Amino acid sequence: MNRLAAIMTLSVLCSLLAPVFPAGADSILTSPHNLSSSGPGRIKSSEERVCIFCHTPHHATKLTDTSDSGPLWSRDENTAQDYITYVSSTISAKPGQPMGASRLCLSCHDGTIALGSPVAHGTTAQLGVLTPPSFPQKSTVLGKDLRDDHPISMEYGLKTGEFRDPATIAAVSRVKLVSRNGTNYVECSSCHNAHDNQYGNFLVTNTATQADALCTVCHTKNGWSGSAHQTGGTRYGATVATAVSQQGCISCHTPHGAQRGENLLKLTSGTASMDTNCYASCHNNDNGAPYLDMRTAGFHNPAGGGGYDGGGTTHTEAETLPLTAPGKHVHCVDCHNPHQTLWQNAPLNSSTAPNVNGVLTGVRGVTINGAVTTAGASYEYEICLKCHSGDAALAGNFNEYPPVSRMFSSLDERERINWGSAKSWHPIAHQRTGTGNSLLNKGITSIYCNDCHDSHGSGTHLLRLDNQDTFSAAQGTSYPLCYSCHDETYLMNTATDLGKLHKAHVQGLHNPLSSNNTKASCSACHDPHGVPYKAGLTTDTNSLHLINFDLRYAATPQAPNQPYDAGAKTCFVVGPGTSGLTCHTTTTNPASYNPYPYSP
After folding, report:
1. pLDDT reading at 58 higher than 80
2. Strands of 154-155's sheet in order across
3. pLDDT digit string (tens) for 507-563?
4. What is the Cα–Cα distance from 92 to 106, expressed in whole angstroms?
5. Is the pLDDT of residue 302 over 70?
């Protein structure tokens, strides 16, 4: 066969090998896969023939994958079994060593075999191995480490409910699953058509106006449809919503060259925290979102240090809950599900407490009884209990800052807010049982953890929204966090014993009992979470009304287990504590308030 005949034969061969393109399909002649002298790409040779770089009409390479007869392959097949495949803790299918069409693609794109080295036909082409372009977002050279690329040679759709029916895919798209013995596999050729570059990157779907159009041909993540990241949401106006919606999956993921291979996440670098996927791209002050503090040390953020997974790679979707000490971490995705999040009922509102709102949709949690939710949490506190309950929490592994030391202590917050283990509690997991007369809004029956804490970061001890941490002897009389719910006028009404008692302590007006006019903060006596039950220590009389003294102010060497008696209406606490506040002296203990002898 002379040279002209060979060219004509290969041209005919190419036309036969190529799929039937829809109108507008591009020719390989105008694509980067034309490595001949007429090619338009950055890599070309002196060779005039086009197809010869991959195909031959005779003596084609016999491929190892016998389920695929091969497209008259002209190149060596890399039979090495040393590719490092994609891994993920949540993937159901297990990607194997590349097979079939994927291995053919990798004969160029793993960068190990020269482009100008067809087996069956000699060529004068002097092309070496494929080299990457100067712009890194074009990951043309994948190498043999495929952990940062979309998995291939993998059985399709094993995770029921999160992938479309293969028959539907074939009917509505050009995505091509490869069938082997009745099983569908994902290969490079599922997303790319080596002969058609009409959409760029040889993609089989036009992604010009909808960047994730190819992703959603196969993927149907639970809760994605209608979510804020799918629609763009309503929080930031039409311009932002449109931009977010048009990016879709691609806002966070990339099919090749991901900085974090698992989940194919875009990060600021290969060693950056997975949270950079959120705040470095969209959720930062530069774009009008209030999350700049998340990057600051001392806040609820691993990137800020403090031993919370500084590498930023610990979280997995199916991790054991409550978290254990070796798995200690907190990331954005621990509290937010990016595939399901909404702006519904955000921010949290007391009228809906303790139900989760849209931004917490689809996040796993731990119930008040210690069970792990199989789907999304129902209540906001269940998300907090993922870390702040269980043995690791009890041992102090999730309290980076020194906790407030109280007479009856527990670092397992479930023990403090559950009426099965607490003698009195703030109404987080259970509705209040009192009259509500002390409340500004007497209709409130439940509250959120976030009514008092800012889970993103407040800059204060224990992420409190307000109130100072410690109080000097002079102290103040303003406790904005407490008074955001409780009626100060009611609490200080000296027409009642309750009012006299509060006014004497909070405002330092103890007369005629004492000349000591120092003031005690609300939290010096009351435990804002609840009084945990500890066998033999707490009873219905000594731990009601959230009375659980702060040991910085009220040490009780005389009666460590009976500091407060709700029945006899007496306290038995002895100062001095720290910070200059001196509680009752030994001569005035136990102090009775039955009735409280304060004269208004």
Report:
1. yes
2. 154-155, 183-186, 178-180
3. 877 665 566 677 788 888 899 999 987 766 778 788 889 988 887 777 655 555 667
4. 24
5. no
Residue 50: what residue type?
V
Give the closest residue to 235 by CA, choosing from 279, 288, 294.
288
d(CA 115, CA 45): 10
Look-up of token digits 């590498």:
311
**With left for phi above 0 and alpha for psi between -120 and 50, is residue 561 left, alpha or beta?**
alpha
Structure tokens of 474?
């002079």
Residue count (the chain):
600
The confidence band for 468, taking pLDDT boundaries of 50, 70 and 90, is low
The two tokens of residue 246 are 């048009």
Report d(CA 252, CA 234) in Å as an integer.
Answer: 19
- Total-model pTM: 0.86
Between strands 422-425 and 591-592, the pairing is unpaired
Beta bridge pairs of residue 219? 163
Total Cβ atoms within 10 A of residue 2: 7
For 148-196, the DSSP string reads: TS---SEETT-STTSB--HHHHHHH----PEEETTEEEE-HHHHB-TT-
Could you tell me if 456 and 299 are in contact, meaning their C-beta atoms sit under 8 angstroms apart?
yes
Mean pLDDT (whole number) for 252-260: 94
In whole angstroms, give the CA distance from residue 206 to residue 115: 28
* Distance from the first to the final alpha carbon of the chain: 116
**Could you give the CA distance from residue 143 to residue 112 in angstroms, rounded to a whole number?**
8
